[in-house]
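Slide 14.
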Amino acid sequence: MLGFTIALTGALIPGPLSVFIVTTVVKSGEKNTGLLAALGHCLVEVVIIGTIVLGLTTVLKSPILQRLVNLVGGGALIIFGALGILERERRETGVRGVKASYNSLMGGVVFTVFNATIPLWWATTGLMMLSQALITTTMLGVLFWVFGHWLADISWFSFLGYSVCRGKRYISEETHSHIIMVCGIVMISLGLFFLFSSLLS
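Slide 15: predicted structure.
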């Protein structure tokens, strides 16, 4: 229950993965986008949790890793944001371009790997919670905590994708275009923030 609650408070904060899900659902109308993206997110966390279990938390805390994730992630967010805005412009002008095709599962992986807050969260809050679960219970308690954590991520992102899909039928073409524009701007803004954070650190 604690793992579910802690994870949910983090998942509810809008981030690159949330923006990706909203943008993709608005474009494709696929209601399973949120679920698949959440599963991709969990796959990355399997690796992170394995790193913690093996005692390699210094890797997650490494300033070099933090800077690398900020630089690569920031650049990726800017590119994805720009592509979304350019696709919107092509639709408005009637120009047919190459339609960006995002695999939702891979999107979940990419936007988790390149989210600079993920290694930091697991190296601090995640590590503390896992340690407490192990001290106060057993390895079974740790597994329950991890299960609750993933259940929260899957529940929220699935709900987000499904809700946007259901609401899409009531969205006009003009509103649809504005949503894509806003999501593109948010992605670019997050990307610039990560880049500047890396340069200033």
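Speaker note: The chain is about 85% helix and 0% strand.
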